[in-house]
């Protein structure tokens, strides 16, 4: 049977995606429910036994017990019943508190994970925008001739030298290809 200390000390492992493992948590709560049910059944049996004993004492042998002893026995029975009720209430309250703490922790964990995911998505969008801007700037530079190329195109002698060097390189390459 579970004790309030066992409920308090229960370790429920976290699930892979956060929060507590639902199967283990549900099994633990079912165990608590069974124990509370057992306590209530035992209490009911004890109450029935008390009623039976009272009937025997009162109806069968009233002369054996003085009224003060009977009153003391009845008081003891009442105290035992009250103690059982308090213990049952305590177990139920601890179980409810523990279940609530599990729910709150799981809710907080889910909220933190969603916030982290939103932050990652925001950073991802910023990085994507920066990369797009960088790529656009690079494409613009590729498509736009540089100042040095524009200046070279305005000098006819430089163009002639470039044309001559290109024809010479092509002729040398053709000669090498024919010689092989």
Helix amount, in percent? Answer: over 70%
Instruction: Report the β-strand fraction as a percent range.
Output: under 5%
Assembly status: single chain
Number of helices: 5
Order of helices and strands: HHHHH
Number of strands: 0
Uncertain segments are: none
Distance between the first and last residues' Cα: 96 Å
User: Mean pLDDT, rounded to whole units?
Assistant: 82
The major beta sheet can be summarized as:
none
Rg of Cα set: 45 Å
> Which term fits the overall shape?
rod-shaped
The chain-level structural class is mainly alpha
Q: Give the domain tally.
A: 2
In short:
The protein is mainly alpha-helical. The chain is 85% helix and 0% strand.
Structural summary, described in words:
Helix content is 85%, strand content 0%. The chain contains 5 helices and no strands. The chain has 2 domains: 4-112; 150-179. The protein is rod-shaped, with a radius of gyration of 45 Å. With 180 residues, it is an all-alpha fold.
């Amino acid at each position: 049977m579970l004790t309030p200390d066992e409920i308090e000390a229960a370790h429920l492992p976290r699930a892979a995606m956060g929060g507590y493992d639902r199967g283990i948590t549900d099994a633990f709560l079912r165990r608590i429910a069974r124990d509370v049910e057992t306590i209530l059944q035992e209490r009911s049996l004890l109450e029935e036994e008390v009623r039976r004993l009272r009937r025997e004492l009162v109806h069968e042998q009233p002369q054996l017990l003085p009224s003060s002893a009977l009153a003391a026995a009845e008081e003891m029975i009442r105290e035992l019943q009250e103690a059982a009720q308090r213990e049952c209430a305590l177990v139920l309250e601890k179980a409810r508190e523990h279940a609530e703490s599990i729910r709150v922790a799981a809710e907080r964990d889910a909220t933190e994970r969603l916030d982290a995911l939103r932050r990652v998505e925001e950073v991802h969008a910023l990085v994507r925008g920066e990369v797009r801007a960088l790529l656009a700037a690079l494409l613009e530079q590729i498509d736009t001739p540089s100042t040095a190329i524009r200046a070279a195109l305005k000098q006819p002698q430089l163009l002639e030298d470039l044309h001559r060097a290109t024809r010479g390189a092509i002729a040398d390459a053709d000669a090498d290809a024919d010689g092989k």
